[in-house]
Amino acid sequence: MIDVDPESDEKTPYECFECGSIIITEDSPGQCPDCGGPMRNRRMSLE
């Protein structure tokens, strides 16, 4: 597994836990723009 720098300026894919919507952005969106659900960084493991 590789280490991911959460402060990176690189664009990162985020996925919504509720609706599965995926957005690619430089900053963590916090909440899904579609349904308001929680987002996760897809480059980080779910463990």
From TrEMBL:
Cross-referenced InterPro entries: DUF7129
Residue ranges annotated for the DUF7129 domain, each copy included: 4-45
Name used for this protein in its record: Rubrerythrin-like domain-containing protein
Upper taxonomic lineage: Archaea, Methanobacteriati, Methanobacteriota, Stenosarchaea group, Halobacteria
